[in-house]
Design brief:
It comes from Streptomyces albipurpureus. With about 425 residues, the chain is of the alpha+beta class. About 25% of the residues lie in helices and about 35% in strands.
């Protein structure tokens, strides 16, 4: 019989993605309060390890993870389906991009300097409540059985199956990291939504451009619809977007990323036992109507850490306000039924809403009066009809997508190509 080791700590964190690393960082950050002992259970290299990805978010000034920020922007642009160009300058906020390897490196370096943190490479097999806490049973890289037990446990792995919902769309995408032969990008401006791409029969599609320099950018093709596309369909859409819409000319594709993010009004359970909780996307941190997750993860993990360091009972607060989730549920249903046309909806919302207010709205940080003003910038009739319909709908089981952004790099699974 294999021997089984046991490790004990105040806090156990399962998963070392954005949520797990952020919680460990918040629990060990300088400041007042008790610093608990922590065990961070991280999947070993292989299929269970989260793929590399990029996270985009917005905040005022320099943040806690500024060392990990690859690029930031003060200007946002939307192109309507008819070619209308709308540009807005952010005042107090900046739109930022963090690649997950840089985030893991920055946070990992800080955690390694903290004596009360232990990182374990192991496959988590089972999490469960136990007297006076919770535990995870694991298998280490060398095949040993390991139990990690704590006063509380936070699990960031996605639930399977996903919770039932009234509406579920998928935000699915593929992007190229491109290098153009000639200057082709404005490094100061993000192309947030470019609707000058062919629109699907159901849902909506847009281009998304994060410039990294005059000749370099991450260029993505994104759809909100019920099912992902084939790899070839994404490649064809990106070829059309880069050459026919952006007219980039000769480009080198230096890497690629792709992913599927569920956009759903499902109710994610955050508490699985007296001391067992889900956090991050697994705990509902992904904003239903947009797919943004990183900022909500920071809010949730900081609140957890503040409570624990102050000696309070373990908890996992809601990542988004109820009013924001209710408005998202209405929008998702209106898009799914076709009562509102996605390109026109988002173009008009961007045109009529100050950019900082719109980003604060997407973060769930607007006041009631601001939400009402934003509501009047949408098609009131279809949205009201949808709001009245929602309470009558049953929640049904859905098949979920991967909440990841997988990144390929030359020399690994995606070869460097030249497109003309």
């Amino acid at each position: 019989m294999l021997s089984q080791d046991v490790i004990a700590a105040d806090v156990v964190i399962v998963g070392a993605g954005a949520a797990g690393l952020s919680l460990a960082h918040a629990l060990t950050a300088p400041g007042a309060g008790h610093r608990p002992s922590i065990v961070l259970v991280e999947a070993p290299d292989g299929p269970l390890r989260p793929p590399d990805r990029t996270w985009c978010f917005w905040e005022e000034g320099d943040g806690e993870f500024e060392e990990a920020v690859l690029a930031s922007w003060r200007r946002l642009r939307i192109h309507g389906r008819d070619g209308e160009r709308i540009e807005r300058t952010l005042h107090s906020l900046r739109y930022k991009m963090i690649p997950s390897p840089r985030f893991a490196e920055v946070v990992g370096d800080r955690l390694r300097d903290t004596p009360r943190v232990r990182q374990v490479r192991a496959v988590a097999q089972e999490v469960r409540s136990v007297p006076e806490g919770a535990e995870v049973r694991c298998t280490t890289q060398d095949g040993r059985l390991l139990t990690v037990r704590g006063r509380c446990l936070y699990d960031s792995r996605p639930p399977a199956p996903p919770p039932p919902a009234r509406t579920t769309l998928l935000q699915h995408f593929r992007g190229w990291f491109v290098h153009a032969d000639e200057p082709a990008f404005d490094p100061s401006t993000v192309e947030l939504m470019d609707f000058r791409v062919p629109q699907p029969r159901h849902g909506l599609a847009f281009g998304y451009v994060l410039p990294l320099g005059p000749r370099d950018a991450l260029v993505e093709y994104t759809e909100f619809s019920r099912a992902p596309l084939s790899r070839q369909a994404y490649e064809s859409a990106l070829e059309l977007y880069t050459q026919e819409v952006l007219k980039l000319g000769p480009i080198v594709v230096r890497g690629a990323e792709e992913g599927v993010i569920p956009m759903t009004d499902a109710r994610f359970r955050r508490r699985e036992g007296p001391a067992l909780f889900r956090i991050g996307a697994a705990g509902g941190a992904t904003r239903p109507a947009t797919g943004y997750t990183f900022s909500a993860v920071q809010r949730q993990t900081r609140r957890i850490a503040a409570t624990l360091r102050a000696g309070g009972s373990p908890t996992a607060p809601a990542p988004h306000p109820r009013r924001a989730l209710a408005m998202d549920a209405v929008l998702l249903r209106a898009l799914d039924t076709g009562r509102v046309a996605g390109p026109e909806f988002f173009t008009e919302l961007f045109r009529r809403t100050p950019p900082d207010r719109m980003l604060r709205f997407l973060d769930g940080r607007t006041r009631l009066l601001e939400d009402i003003r934003i509501g009047f910038a949408t098609p009131v009739g279809p949205m009201l009809r949808t709001a009245l319909e929602l309470p009558l709908l049953r929640r049904a089981a859905v098949s979920g997508g991967r909440t990841d952004r997988a990144v390929d790099h030359p020399g690994s699974t995606h070869r460097e190509e030249r497109h003309r």
